[in-house]
Design a protein that fits this description.
With 298 residues, this protein is α+β, with helices and mostly antiparallel strands. 32% of the residues lie in helices and 25% in strands.
Length: 298
């Protein structure tokens, strides 16, 4: 894949404030702002027409909650969400610099983004339903699919992974060795744990079919340990509740690939206890994950 020139502009000069993002030679524009800067955001002239948006906030299970919508009147729509949705702390708005997005385009994009978010499984969606894709002429559908492809690149740069693809097939063969690690294993026969994972494009991913504990029983005495274990337990329960882990004969089985923030978190979820992931995930040749990660440095 060729490099991408992405321009970020901090409108008020602060990293947590209103930010715009663009890709060179792409007609789309993305704006991100905290909830506290709604008045500044809605005053932007580029948001006068059709746009799609994502409301983002923390989830009780430690992840991210997200609502995806589209509108022709962003100011009115955001005012409605401000009064009726408590969870969100940040809004990301997607529009077009050439003002060529129509209502039909907006509905098509909304449907595609919701579907991609469901497939990615990175956020807890607030949307109750998935609207069917808006029928568009073939050329317009192609344009909007390209538009979505650019969003899958620029949104993660802003820290928004809601629609970020993680399938191995999306990585070109020429870059697989660079971006995809060998498969690492985590085994604990007494617990029925037999998990496999790879680091894909910088993300530690437990692979579908991996076996883990069906329930998380870890305990601790120190306040810091108790807090960490409570977080692991909540994450395990969330994955079970959403169907990402299925209990089969007292053993948990990953029903899909799941990304974790670190190999240690992935290992803790699998084992039901704390885990030094850099040491306990082992490759087929006996190499520890930490040693593989540090290759060429030591």
């Amino acid at each position: 894949m060729a490099g991408k020139h992405i321009e970020l502009f901090l409108v008020d000069g602060t990293p947590g404030g209103l930010t715009t993002a663009e890709i060179l030679n792409w007609t789309g524009q993305v704006l991100s702002a905290p909830r506290s800067e709604m008045s500044t955001l809605v005053a932007r002239t580029e948001l006068a027409g059709t746009c799609v948006y994502l409301l983002l906030g923390p989830d009780e299970g430690g992840g991210t909650r997200c609502y995806i919508g589209e509108t022709d009147d962003f100011k009115s729509r955001l005012r409605y969400h401000d009064a009726n949705k408590e969870f969100w702390r940040r809004v990301v708005v997607v529009t077009s610099k050439d003002a060529n997005l129509t209502k039909a385009h907006g509905r098509y994009l909304e449907s595609r983004l919701i579907t991609l978010a469901q497939q990615a499984g990175r956020v807890v969606l607030e949307n109750g339903t998935t609207p069917p894709p808006q029928p568009l002429p073939e050329a317009h559908s192609s344009d909007m699919d390209y538009f979505v492809g650019q969003l899958q690149i620029v949104l993660p740069v802003l820290g928004v992974d809601a629609i970020r693809a993680r399938e191995l097939d999306t990585i070109l063969p020429t870059r697989r060795e660079e971006l995809v690690s060998p498969v690492f294993h985590l085994r604990q026969p007494k617990l029925g744990v037999e998990a496999q994972a790879q680091q894909v494009d910088g993300e530690f991913t437990v692979l579908a079919g991996s076996k883990c504990v069906a329930t998380w029983h870890g305990t601790g005495k120190a306040p810091s340990t108790i807090k960490a274990y409570a977080s692991y337990r909540a994450e395990h329960e969330r994955l079970v509740a959403e169907g990402s882990i299925s209990a089969v004969d007292g053993v948990g089985v990953f029903t899909r690939d799941v990304v974790f923030g670190s190999p240690s978190t992935a290992g803790a979820i699998c084992l039901g206890r704390s885990c030094n992931g850099r040491r306990e995930w082992i490759g087929a040749d006996g190499t520890m994950f930490g040693a593989w990660e540090s290759r060429g440095v030591q």
